[in-house]
Specification:
Helix content is 24%, strand content 35%. It has 356 residues and is an alpha+beta fold. It has two domains: 224 residues, P-loop containing nucleotide triphosphate hydrolases (Rossmann fold); 112 residues, OB fold (Dihydrolipoamide Acetyltransferase, E2P) (Beta Barrel), CATH 2.40.50. It has a six-stranded mixed β-sheet with strand order 7-8-9-3-10-11, with helices on both faces. A hairpin with a 2-residue loop joins strand 10 and strand 11.
Length: 356
């Protein structure tokens, strides 16, 4: 196992800045997800970590060993790292056992030890009984398990994943998320997992590093990232959020256009600061009626402008005074029609303030 440290990594391709100086530590035995949209720099980070690219500046460390810097890099094959690709990259003419054993044979591991390791890893990834099958005889999920077994059998200190579930259908992706989580728990290997799928990162990772525009916007546990986003991008990218522009006019009180809302947080801001008030759609409360009931000082009148049925929930878009609009996820048992006058309530405890 190993602790991985990325220190002020920078990388440009011509005039395009891929990494603008990122630093993060992957703890020994931790699974860290690098999460972000296409072009955010996560794959470039992984390639530098794997040794395929040199950084323009900054360093990559594994424990007390310097792996990469602008002056040079330890070759990929000497890093004690394994990489699981988006494509399975299996040898089509080899059986499951032969594919898994390939890395050990290249390292000239003794035959008996190779067989022992292959048998153990086949059991770990749930492929017992498939050892003599060829890749074309396996499902996509089974092929991905072979690729994972091949990466694990050489006993790396660190395991890298480059969007490994992208080629699977929705049901298999969901199943493999929990399988990867289980395997990480059983092996305790340090893992870095690149993905653009928020749900995938939330299920798999111990911590998530949210990337945007070559920078790391926030690092935290899935709960911390979801419940306490530190920027508008994180709030809107993780689980979706209503982000209303406004100004802090009193402690915990935000003016958004002609409306006022209360938020639990605000100590990081000064009165008059421009802020974004963020609230998750599932936390927005909606009631029928054109006016807030007596005593409801935080209720706001609005009009339903869009509605989508999602099964147990319905997705509502509601226009508020002053040109604002919020999205709410309400139970499907509540019946609304486009044009209905409704009352919207943003619970104070669900509202977070971030910088614009």
């Amino acid at each position: 196992m190993a602790e991985i440290r990325l220190v002020d990594l920078r990388k440009s391709f011509g005039a395009t800045v891929a990494l603008g100086g990122i630093s993060v530590t992957v703890k020994d035995g931790e699974l860290l997800a690098l999460l972000g949209p296409s072009g955010c720099g996560k794959s470039t980070t992984l390639q530098i970590l794997a040794g395929f690219l040199l950084p323009d500046s900054g360093e990559v460390w594994s424990d007390d060993h310097l792996l990469s810097s602008p002056r040079g890099a330890v070759p990929p094959e000497r890093r004690r790292m394994s990489l699981v690709f988006q494509s399975y990259a299996l040898w089509p003419h080899m059986t499951v056992s032969q594919n898994i054993a390939f890395g050990l044979e290249m390292r000239r591991v003794e035959s008996g030890e190779t067989q022992r390791r292959v048998h153990a890893i086949v059991e770990l990834v749930g492929l017992a009984g498939h050892e003599r099958r060829y890749p074309h005889e396996l499902s996509g999920g089974q092929q991905q398990r072979v690729a994972l077994a091949r990466a694990l059998v050489v006993q790396p200190d660190t395991l890298l994943f480059d969007e490994p579930l992208s080629n699977l259908d929705a049901n298999l992706r969901e199943q493999m998320r929990f399988e990867i989580r289980r395997i990480h728990k059983e092996t305790g290997i340090t893992m870095v997992y690149v993905t653009h799928d928020q749900g995938e990162a939330m299920v798999i990772a111990d911590r998530i590093a949210v990337m945007n525009g070559g920078q790391i916007e926030q690092v935290g546990t899935p709960r911390e990232i979801h419940e306490s986003p530190q920027s508008r991008f994180v709030a809107s990218f993780i689980g979706q959020a209503n982000c209303l522009p406004g100004h802090l006019v009193a402690p915990g009180l935000v003016r958004c256009g002609e409306l006022h809302f209360r938020a639990d947080e605000g100590s990081a801001f000064r009165l008059g600061d421009a802020v974004m008030l963020c609230v998750r759609p599932h936390a927005v409360q909606v009631r029928s009626g054109g006016r807030p009931p007596a005593g409801d000082n935080d209720g706001v009148s609005g009009q339903l402008v869009q509605q989508a049925y999602l099964g147990d929930l319905q997705d509502l878009r509601i226009a508020l005074p002053g040109g604002l609009q919020v999205r709410a996820l309400a139970p499907s048992g509540q019946h609304y029609q486009i044009g209905d006058e409704v009352v919207v309530h943003l619970p104070q405890e669900a509202c977070r303030l971030v910088r614009p």
